[in-house]
Design brief:
The chain folds into two domains: 157 residues, Alpha/beta knot, CATH 3.40.1280; 65 residues, no CATH class. The chain is built from ten helices and seven strands. The termini are far apart.
Length: 248
């Protein structure tokens, strides 16, 4: 059974190759989408080539709805997007994939059903398909090479859905089991280095010593240190002191 997560239906209109259907299912499942609908797949359905290419997303293929026409596939939807790279001579709102999936998230949150149409590999959607859509999704690709593979287009749109519907960490650090050092631990590290460097005569001349210590403490505060980092830095200084003592 499809998941309970509210989401748009991705409708592959007259897809030609089973491999592309399988790759599209994999792309959808990468981003948590599992509502696939197929309109008149050229090689019939089910398709062994699609299953072989799905790489773990076979459930989407087993649960995919198969329809004879585009109208039938989107009959239960109140808002439909159509993906196309070419101007079709139809007056429609044209939005980026990012904006389209933002709109989809808003509409689905309001209780609407949304679908996204993807055309066949060779020529894309026909005007009859696009006429049934409320808006067009236009990907800002190279105008001299605007054609996207079916699975690529599905992947790109699914990624934007994930961004629009989920909290994304745009920047993070993997701590690998470590914890961030606390303020007191950083303070003790700073004191350790100040004391040892003072003994070594590093803070010279005396008139500049206080300023040098402030610069050093500021250095520690700018460094995102873990507890393991602090322990290692303490150990480095201890070993250097022992080495100097042995040298004497």
């Amino acid at each position: 059974m499809p998941s309970d997560t509210p989401q748009p239906a991705f409708v592959l209109v007259r897809p030609q190759m089973g491999e592309n259907i399988g790759a599209a299912s994999r792309a959808m499942w990468n981003f948590g989408l599992d509502r696939m609908r197929l309109v008149a797949p050229r090689d019939g359905w089910p398709n062994p080539s699609a299953v072989a290419m799905s790489s773990g997303a076979g459930r989407l293929l087993e649960e995919a709805q198969v329809h004879d026409t585009t109208a039938e596939a989107v009959g239960d939807c109140s808002y439909v997007f159509a993906t196309t790279a070419r101007s079709r001579g139809l007056t429609k709102p044209v939005v980026s994939p990012e904006r389209a999936m933002e709109m989809a998230a808003e509409k689905i949150a309001a209780g609407e059903r949304v679908a996204v149409l993807f055309g066949p590999e060779r020529a894309g959607l026909e005007n009859d398909d696009i006429a049934r859509a409320n808006a067009i999704i236009s990907v800002p690709v190279n105008p001299e090479f605007a054609s996207l593979n079916l699975a690529q287009c599905v992947l790109l749109t699914a990624y934007e859905w994930r961004r629009a519907s989920s909290r994304i960490d745009h920047d993070r650090i993997e701590l690998a089991g470590a914890d961030w050092a606390t303020g007191i631990e950083i303070e003790k590290l700073a004191e350790h280095y100040e004391d040892r460097l003072d003994e070594a005569g590093f803070f010279f001349p005396e008139t500049k010593a206080e300023g040098m210590k402030i610069v050093l403490r500021n250095l520690w505060s700018r460094m995102p240190l873990t507890r393991s980092d602090v322990q290692m830095l303490h150990g480095i200084m201890r070993q250097m002191v022992r080495w100097k003592t042995r040298g004497d």
